[in-house]
Structures are given as C-alpha cells and as structure tokens.
Amino acid sequence: MIKIIFMGTPAFAATVLEGLLADERYHVLAVVTQPDRAVGRKRQIQMTPVKEVALSHDLPIYQPEKISGSQEMADIMALGADGIVTAAFGQFLPTKLLHSVDFAVNVHASLLPKYRGGAPIHYALINGDERAGVTIMEMVKEMDAGDMIASDSIPIEESDNVGTLFGKLALVGRDLLLRSLPDYVSGELIPIPQDESQVSFSPNIRPEEERLDWNKSARALFNQVRGMYPWPVAHTLWQGQRFKIYEVSLAEGDGSPGQVLVRTKKELIVGTGQGALSLKTVQPAGKPKMGISDFLNGAGRDVQVGDNFGQ
Q1: Is 111 part of any known ligand binding site?
Q2: Which pTM does this prediction carry?
Q3: I need a surface site. Which of 211, 257, 270, 272 has the fewest CB within 10 A?
Q4: Which residue range or ranges hold the Formyl transferase C-terminal domain (predicted)?
C-alpha cells in the first residue's frame, strides 16, 4: 500500500482525494489544505471542499498559511509518507519537502505545456479551445514545469462553463491519476520532459479582465462570460454602475457595440463588434442574481432599444 500525503483545496481536488480514499492501493496519511476563509457578503468562515472530505474520513488535517518553514511542514515530513499528491493546492512546495519523499506528483487541469498556472480552465474557455484536459506531472520548484507522467483530454462543449468543466476534468484527473500512479511508482512509466517552446501561462484572472469590451465579437464575449462563470463573473456598466453578466447566448443582430437591439418582456439582445448576445442571467448593482425576464420586469423595466451597456 502506497502511503500518501494529499494536498489540495477546491472541489476539483476533493474529487481526486475521494478517488484515492476509495482505492485500496493507497493509504492517505494526512491532508494539507488552505486555511478556512471568510467568504461572501456576510464574511462567513468557510472550510475548503478538501477539508470537508478529510473530516468525513477522520483524516489528520494541516492548514498552514504558508507551508514553507512552518511547523506543519516538519510534522508532515515526520509522517513517513512514500509520496505527495497535489491538486489545485494553491502554494508552492519547498524543495526540502519534495526531497523528503520518494515521489511528488501534481494533477494539473491543462494539457501541459499549455496553460501553466492557476487558471487553466478559465483560459481554455476564454480562448475558445476545442478541448481541455489534465496532466499528471512531477513536482518541481518551478510552477507546473515538471516532467509529464500522463495526460488525457475531453471536448469542450458549447454549454460548458468554468463550473461544468471543473467538474468534468476533476473526474478525468481522478481516473488518470489512479491509472497512471502505480506504473509511475514502480518505474514502468517514464515521465516525458515538457517542450519549453510550447509553454503558455494561465495566471489568475485579474479584476480588469472581468470587464466586457463590447467592441469584441459576440463569440469572444460569449467565451469570456462562460470562462468566468460561476467565478469570478464578467461584468459591464449599466447606468454608470457595475452590472454582472453570468450567462449569455449567441444571437442574431447587427448594431453598435453595447447597444440594446431587441427588448421584450423575456429577451434582451445587445450588439457587439461582430454579431450579438442575448443576456440570460444578470445581476444589477445592489440586487440579487436573476434571470433576464425578472430584470426586465423589475430593475430593468426602463431599458429601451437604443440604450447602451458599457457606458
């Protein structure tokens, strides 16, 4: 039985952890995850999805603010694990920690060397990629730069967004890890170096990237909206205030970028630099998230054809 320390934070990582716990070939000694954080408008303290899984299995849990040089790192190294498995952990692992085990691998949600960094699923959608995938790679000090152990991919559907694609790729990553890890540990599966000439990066989305530029094409804006749903959420301006847009669909129409082209009780179509978008789920400033018909019959009842978003 392979003794493992698991490190991860979001639901993507929790799915991978559950796979390891259900497989009799592995013994998860402990879990390392990010500290509990205050979230939402009410700033309620919330534990990570990985911590929730660990608690349900009575696993030891470590939550260092920074693992490097911490007492938690010393305690982890004393557990006697054979290896470390990480998945969307959110911290770099010190070289000393990596060298304390026989192996350290990461489940990364991209087809490396494409999209190294913290937001690979967001970028795959925003850039209109046809496929997304997962790579199992060796851990090194440089971000997502280790040799590749295995990879697998799935098509990106028109209906996909960050949330749905995270869920799908979590299952891909779980199954890929369980298939490849035994052969890697035994030495039968030899990792392949990444092609440095093909490297691209997917840094965490910056606030300014969340804002929609209506001069872009409808397809580019459609990809941006779904590439930020359900987080961090794209937005524009409406009557000088932030107006969040959660879901849209491509629509027929031709008009000025940001201009309202069609307005009925159930439909709001806005022009772009090329084509048009039908807004589906929105959130005006100071209001809850709502379907477009609720907006048009409430806070947006004064919206008229010819009005403009983004101003």
Answers
A1: yes
A2: 0.95
A3: 211
A4: 204-299
